[in-house]
Every structure is written in C-alpha cells, then in structure tokens.
Amino acid sequence: MLAGAAFSYRPVRIPTPLASPRAPRPRATPQAGARTERVRVGALERARREALVGDMYRLFTRTCTGFSRPEFERLFLTRGDVEFELTYDRRGELSGFSVVQERARL
Known about the structure:
106 residues; alpha+beta; three-stranded antiparallel beta sheet; two-stranded antiparallel sheet; 25% helix; 22% strand
C-alpha cells in the first residue's frame, strides 16, 4: 500500500429478491455475449494501456475510495509482469477485472 494512502471500501447494495433460507438459490448464468480476456500489463501498447487504466479506475471507484488515478496506476499497473483477467459485457464495455496470480514455475 502507498505510504499515507487511506483505502476504504464502500459497500454497494444490490437488490435481490427475498427467498426462504431453505429455498434453492438460482445459479448465476453467464451473460449472453459476455467475454473475458487475460492481459499482461507489460505486453500492452501505450494507447491501449492508457485506455484500460481509465476504464479500470472508473470501475474501481464505484466501490472503493482512497486512491487517485495516478496512485491506482502506480499500485496496480507499474509492474510489467502483472496479469489481469478482464470481463466485458455484451456491448464490449469493461464490466470487471481481477488480478491473476499464477503459481511460481519450478
């Protein structure tokens, strides 16, 4: 974490239908047309990387506070070996991301 940075999580309330605790819960189904992609930060061209930083930061700030965009970029995107799994909705817009950590190869 960056020195002096205060990170906080802002919970988002997602409306869900009421259900009995004993009732089976419906399984999530993948959105038709949605896709995922894995990218390694160091392999991206500068223009694509800059666009991706903006999209990721917008998603990040929907639920988290405490980092400016430059801090976010420095924390998550300065190492070239970091790999992300990106999720896109059916319109092709970034809808989520996660850091992928692979096991060390022996």
